[in-house]
Amino acid sequence: MNHSEIEALLEKAATQFMLGENAETEASLALLGSATVCAEASALAGELSRTVRKSSTEDEWPDDATRSRMEAGLDQLRKLLSEGGSQSLPAASTGSPVANSSSSSALNQDPELVGDFILEAREHLQTVETGLLVLEKEPANPDTLNAVFRSFHTIKGLAGFLEFANIQALAHEVETILDLARTGQLVMTPNLIDLTLESSDYVGKEINRIEAQLHAKDPGPVLDPGLLLVRVRTVIGGDHSGDHSGNEATPDLEPQELKPVQAEVFGAKIAPSSSNTAQPANTPKTTHPKAVPAEQMDAKTKRGMATDTHAIRVDTAKLDYLLDMVGEMVIAESMVRLDPELSGTKNTRLQRNLNQLRRVTEEVQKVAMATRLIPVGTLFQRVNRLVRDTSRKAGKMAEVELIGEDTQLDKTIIEELTDPIMHMVRNSIDHGIETPADRVQAGKPQSGRVQLKAYRQADHIQIEIVDDGRGLHKEKILAKARERGLINESVHLTDSEIFQLIFEPGFSTAEKVTDISGRGVGMDVVKKQIQKLRGKIDIHSTPGLGTTFYLKLPLTLAIVEGLVVGVGRERYILPIFSVQEMFRPVEGQVSTVQSRGEMVMVRNQLLPLIRLHRSLGVKPKTEDTAQSLLIVAETEGKRFVLMVDEFVGKQEVVIKSLGASLKNTTGIAGGAILGDGRVGLILDLEAIYSERNLKAEVIKESLLEAC
Amino acid sequence: MSAAVLGAPVLTKEERSGKYLAFHLGPEEFGIQVLKVREIMGIQEITAVPHTPQHTKGVINLRGKVIPVVDLRLKFGMPEAIYTQRTCIIVTEVEGESGPMMIGAVVDGVSEVLNLSPVDIEDTPDFGGEVATTGLLGMAKVKGKVKILLDIDHVMTHQDLKDLGKILS
Questions:
Q1: What is the ipTM of this complex?
Q2: Dist CA A319 CA A135 (whole Å)
Q3: Element (H, E) at A39
């Protein structure tokens, strides 16, 4: 029998197994075992064949444990054979064993299913991580143990169904540990928790790779779960004075205790098929071989999710469309309500109905906006893990306290906020919290405390990161700033201004660079990121008592509060967070400074003047500054004055893209639908400011050349 | 010979046959495939966008979506016309670099939907190299009048038809 015939035989056996034709599977495997030249494969095939026979003689449909064991075995066999094949037939395709181990045919066949798997598995990993941190404090908490167990179980099931063998194998082994723990045969020691966390990290990384493959990106090198698997198996083999006698390397480690659980879950399904051993041809499973795992998985998934609140997954594109439509409805409603024919009506019934319509419309808008919001809890949970790992690495002790995890924020903001928050917490541990000895000396409890607080304040969200460490060292910061030439000796700064210095690029007062932080990279990035999210960051610190970072963030990025101004016939929207004040100039306030263009004196400060109509190329109502409106704006720390014709109003607007062909237009950040249904353009003040500078440079250069 | 002028991919007459929306710019009649048309709306106030080519008139609100609007007269280098009651915006869905996108086209007026059979369609004549003909699907003769069939995907994403107006006049 040649190589390809053997491979075909293996596939036949796998199919037969899937169809439940146990006797045939057994025969095929036995034949395969005797035919192959590879000793290892031969042994494995023989063993698998015996496993099938055992479960069929026990007059029982192969249960889940046997099934996954068989699948893992068959996979391994495939691998062995393809390796053996490439040895004997060097011309055959190379590299397939690696691809086999981590990529699955489902990736190509059913990308949607894989996408769902990625989402769901990540949720489960989150549950696992949260649960494990709880277990660290209460190792025997039964609810948590069950939750973590269920999550791994679901991941295993899904991965098995989609043929992600590495994930499946590891999740399976970890599940065994957790099962031992929840049946009281094993105690979740810190070491075990570390191991389980590492395993969940591994699964997370594998999922990242799968996602990359799904989007046809380079997934990076294959991660070998081998070492982790060995460690996990050692735990199972060692700590558990087991039912099996095993030094076997095959995953024959399933203790009997697992059975009741599965019987409970799948009891209904197992029962009918138990009567027919070899030919379950009349069961529905044979007619829809693919449906078997799917059905079982459903049951598992439901079980795993039983504790979740009722939620459904919705495509964000659908949500955005809903928001668009609701926005339109609000505009249409206000146009109807404010129509002169209706607004002057004396008909009380009509008035009442219009009021009702307005209330309902507002409510619908509020609800629609809320659909994009998710609780910050998901982000905070990750801090737990971070504090645990970082403090351990830095030889410190720290506890985390989370307040306001239910506070809702836009999903995009939460995603963009993750890195800055992680960075600040890492800093708090590394620079803020003292070593246990120092803390005791300072009269503080040995273990430090990091507190994350989120709450809503009016129309924005406030997040505080509080530590009870040593606080920021004002003098040190000042000295460092002078040394780097950021400030000169004579300037007097307020505390808050001094603290803001740590956001300067490359600023660090740490005496030594650790692998956690201290390189002075980061706080500037943090500030940039927060500003990108249209947020603000502030610091309060008391020496010896700790530091608090205050983050102020908008509820959502989709809406911006805008100042609507008119220039000529056009109307533009300025984001209100970058507007400081507006006024009509008095005579002499505007002056021309040589080679620097027009300047305006505002509160004893000369600020450059930008005539908006010039930078946008529109015809203004007036060129006379005295009859225009001046607006003081600030972006990226630069202040300047914008000249417009008139102030139209203040409005909350939904930011919309101008579409692929116009999205890169200089000076325009996007569009928004105004109250009358027309489109207003949202200005990109930063671009307008830097473009003006560019122009000034060009003019200066041409002047120099002319001279 | 004319097939070579059309450039790749050359569509057969059968592939080009089907329903077309006929509209006019001045005296010239044009047609675009009905499948590319999302809707036709009367002219409305267009918000001008600075720093854009002259033929980009600006953006409009299409039921909550902001979409750009192009004046086809200016795009083809024809003289600008004052918008009237008959002026229309044809909202088209074209293939952009990053997937389908909606763009409005301002035209003098739409006339009818034509059902063109393969025999009605002729290849685009050679204009003598002065104008790229890649944006044209061909010519259609209907009731003795010639209509220019536009490849709207190409027209909206390229700038090479700006001399079309000159040649037509």
A1: 0.82
A2: 37
A3: helix A39-57
Whether the CB of A335 is below 8 Å from some CB of chain B: the reply is no
Structure tokens at A645: 């014709």
The reply to whether A687 touches chain B by the CB within 8 Å rule is no
Cis omega before residue A111 (within 30°)?
A: no
Selection from A523, A374, A383 nearest residue A466 by Cα: A383
Q: Rounded to an integer, what distance in angstroms lies between the CA atom of residue A312 and that of residue A381?
A: 22
Per-residue pLDDT reduced to its tens digit, A360-410? 998 998 888 788 788 888 888 888 888 888 888 888 888 889 999 888 888
C-alpha to C-alpha distance for A191 and A355, rounded to whole angstroms: 64
Contacting residues for A370 by C-beta, under 8 A, at least 6 apart:
A408
State the Cα–Cα distance between residues A110 and A164, nearest whole angstrom: 13
**Among candidates A615, A667, A679 on the partner chain, residue whose Cβ is nearest the Cβ of B59:** A679
Q: Which of A464, A482, A469 minimizes the C-alpha distance to A430? A: A469
**CA-to-CA separations, A531 to A25, A556, A562, A635, in angstroms, rounded:** 63, 14, 17, 10
Q: Is the Cβ–Cβ distance between A186 and A257 less than 8 Å?
A: no
Single-letter amino acid, residue A86: S
Spatial distance between the Cα atoms of A439 and B94, rounded to a whole number of angstroms:
66
Contact indicator for B3, B119 with CB cutoff of 8 Å? no
Q: Sign of the C-alpha dihedral, residues A48, A52, A53, A58?
A: positive
Instruction: Decide: pTM greater than 0.80.
Output: no
Convert the pLDDT of each residue in A275-291 to its tens digit: 343 443 443 333 343 43
> Which token pair is A564?
């609507």
User: Which of A327, A657, A662 is opposite residue B52, by nearest beta carbon?
Assistant: A662
The amino acid present at A603, given as its one-letter code, is: R
Alpha helices in chain B (DSSP H): 2-6, 13-16, 72-75, 152-157, 164-168
Q: How far apart are CA A40 and CA A27, in angstroms?
A: 19
